[in-house]
UniProtKB/TrEMBL annotation:
This is Uncharacterized protein. Keywords: Coiled coil. It comes from the Eukaryota. Residues 7-44 form a coiled coil.
Length: 143
């Protein structure tokens, strides 16, 4: 009896060992899968960083070209205008703002006043036809 009991115990230990080995193999497979996923993620990260650096470099070059084009355009405009070469555009604007405003010609002011008076008279003539009231004061002053 003792022998059969020991044989039964040995078989139970072997069955338990087999289950433990199966669990171990499953866990090792999961570890390998996680390692493969981590490796793929690192590879994708490296590729993404390389792409980001390339795009940033291209964007920097594009900005430099744009800045150079703007500087060239500004220098051409400075060369074409009669701005003294010692002045930057900002200093030129400041100097321009400090200059007294140009006087408006007296003729232009008189023409504007006459035009306004004529418009006023036309308005009041139309209104007076309806109201039968007195004419506009500005019209009386002109007469």
């Amino acid at each position: 009896m003792k022998v059969t009991a020991i044989i039964v115990e040995v078989e139970a230990v072997k069955a338990s060992q087999n289950q433990t080995m199966k669990k171990l193999e499953a866990m090792q497979k999961e570890i390998e899968d996680v390692k493969a996923i981590a490796h793929k993620a690192r590879k994708n990260t490296k590729l993404a960083n390389a792409a980001r650096k390339a795009i940033e470099g291209e964007l920097r070059r594009w900005r430099e070209r744009e800045h150079k084009m703007q500087a060239d355009a500004a220098s051409r405009m400075l060369a074409e205008s009669k701005i003294p070469m010692g002045l930057s555009p900002r200093n030129y604007l400041i100097q321009k703002l400090k200059q007294p405003p140009k006087k408006i010609e007296l003729r232009k002011l008189e023409n504007a006043r006459t035009s306004l008076t004529n418009l006023c008279c036309i308005y009041h003539k139309k209104r007076n036809k309806m109201d039968y009231g007195s004419p506009c004061l500005t019209c009386e002053m002109q007469m």
